[in-house]
Amino acid sequence: MKHPNRIVYPDLGLTRIEVMTYYDGVADVMIPHMRERAITLKRWTEDIVGPVFYQKHFANQPIRIEHSHELLQWVALGTLEFHVPLGLLDRPLQHDWAVLDLDPPQNCLWSEVAQAARAVAALWEHLAVPFIMKTSGGKGVHFYIPIEPQDHRSVVYWMKSLATLLAITFPESLTVERLKARRRNRIYLDYLQNGSQRTMIGVYSMRATQAATVSTPIRLEELGFEPSYWTPVRVLPRVAQGDDLFCAKTPRCRLEDVVERYNLLPNLR
Predict the structure, then answer these.
(1) Counting Cβ atoms within 10 Å, is residue 135 exposed (0-12), middle (13-18) or buried (19+)?
(2) What is the pLDDT of residues 124-157, one digit of tens each?
(3) What residues does 39 pair with on adjacent strands?
(4) Comparing C-alpha atoms, which of 165, 155, 120 is closest to residue 268?
(5) What is the pTM of this model?
(6) Which of 5-14, 17-26, 166-175, 243-252 shows the lowest mean pLDDT across its residues?
(7) Does residue 167 sit in helix, strand or coil?
(8) What DSSP element (H or E) covers 20?
(9) CA-CA distance, 133 to 118, in Å (whole number)?
(10) Rounded Cα–Cα distance for residues 13 and 23 (Å)
(11) d(CA 13, CA 166)
(12) What domains appear along the chain, each with residue ranges and CATH number?
């Protein structure tokens, strides 16, 4: 590794070798969710306020991370963020995860995001939809639903129907409106993240935020903690104790069965 003592997070004085130590500590729980997928890297040449670029290929091949040494090699080259698709490398348009990204407006309070997340979780539980919740590492919350592999266009359609139902139920706080000017400070339910070529920040990936936040799987009762709470200093001991919520073995569901079973087909204009 070049420049191991280079400060990567200026506000914290966090160095490149400390970033490496974090990723070494979470590699065993992070890599299983990256295997057999085409990874997109976000690399910084200096610190988080310096030059940055995305990388999707190496030696004319999609980037794969199958082992810890591969993960750490990329970290040594300045990678801070790992972005992961919803489909496998050999069938990228067949997604085995559905996601709903709660994207709050600029000045939204975390308490409002947490309240929205609880409402979404309540719907999933009412419909008996299995889900895993994680912080985005920014201001939002990601819901992951394990599904039977399905064409990405179908996943977008079914997730749109569920997101629209939520927006109709909570019209003052949630919206599926794509244009920011029309959202009126409501939290955007981004179901389009299920589309082709989209990626999500990987579970346990650090983010280039001043607080060095981590995209962390959480329980409902942990929504009281703001995103800045989830940093390497808290995530590492949690993982070391075997508390990896993202490894939960839940049955995969068929979204269309859920929507049709409960006749959840609002106007999808």
Answers:
(1) buried
(2) 999 989 999 999 999 999 999 999 999 999 999 9
(3) 63
(4) 165
(5) 0.94
(6) 243-252
(7) helix
(8) helix 16-30
(9) 10
(10) 17
(11) 42
(12) 7-89+200-211+225-247 (3.90.920.10), 91-197+249-254 (3.30.70.3300)
